[in-house]
What we know:
By secondary structure, the protein is an alpha+beta fold. The protein has two domains: 20-49 and 200-291, Arc Repressor Mutant, subunit A (Orthogonal Bundle), CATH 1.10.10; 59-122 and 143-186, no CATH class. The protein has twelve helices and eight strands. The strands form two sheets. It has a four-stranded antiparallel β-sheet with strand order 1-6-3-4, with no helix packed on it. Helix 2 (31-44) packs antiparallel against helix 9 (233-250), helix 3 (123-136) packs parallel to helix 6 (190-199) and helix 9 (233-250) crosses helix 11. Pfam families: HTH_18. InterPro entries: AraC_XylS_family_regulators (IPR050204), HTH_AraC (IPR018060), HTH_AraC-typ_CS (IPR018062). This is HTH araC/xylS-type domain-containing protein. It comes from Stenotrophomonas maltophilia (Pseudomonas maltophilia). Keywords: DNA-binding, Plasmid, Transcription, Transcription regulation.
Amino acid sequence: xxxxxxxxxxxxxxxxxxxxxxxxxxxxxxxxxxxxxxxxxxxxxxxxxxxxxxxxxxxxxxxxxxxxxxxxxxxxxxxxxxxxxxxxxxxxxxxxxxxxxxxxxxxxxxxxxxxxxxxxxxxxxxxxxxxxxxxxxxxxxxxxxxxxxxxxxxxxxxxxxxxxxxxxxxxxxxxxxxxxxxxxxxxxxxxxxxxxxxxxxxxxxxxxxxxxxxxxxxxxxxxxxxxxxxxxxxxxxxxxxxxxxxxxxxxxxxxxxxxxxxxxxxxxxxxxxxxxxxxxxxxxxxxxxxxx
Length: 292
């Protein structure tokens, strides 16, 4: 039943006083910064249901990197250059003793010789980072993915997703051009391509229709979305619908009841409950944190 247009925007009690999201959103002001904070907090601080696609059994024995994926390597004890091979080409990389380097494959998978894998970079987190950032800034698709691998020296093992996020933030701050080069390599991976595709679709779209448009069976598409987002494709679309509506609300004077109905929610309370489920705060308290 359609609610009255005279309804208040929302009234609720604050929750999650000590949450990372509250600390983040209350430090920001302005629509652009607030939007980035909302998206980052909703996407990156949530727990991932499964990390099976991000881990590699027997890390020290890893000798292959699939396209668009990355691992952290250390030089072997013999101090010889690391040899990377792929597509009939050979690259030699010198890494100082005791140092680590991130190696990311481009458009072709590569094999390694003379290196010890010190950590496997969480593939879905790396892909989501790049895809969400590109979607937020409406970045142009990568026209051509380099064939050669990218080597970034001086990094940590980064087995934990939070370590990877910290590394990417620092890389973007310190060397935007190198971050862009990493983006062009990650874009070769299927995880990035699926994430960017889903982010470009209407949140109200049906999973079966998205799968058909992408060129996969519904079962295969749901499996890949689970690997990329750490949740089902349906739940990811729910999250996108909520974030789109929330971003519209935080910068407008539209009544919350109207905004909820425009976004496809059955009621204002349905919208409010879903936002609180995802981020632990009501739309009203997010709005106040941004505009006060």
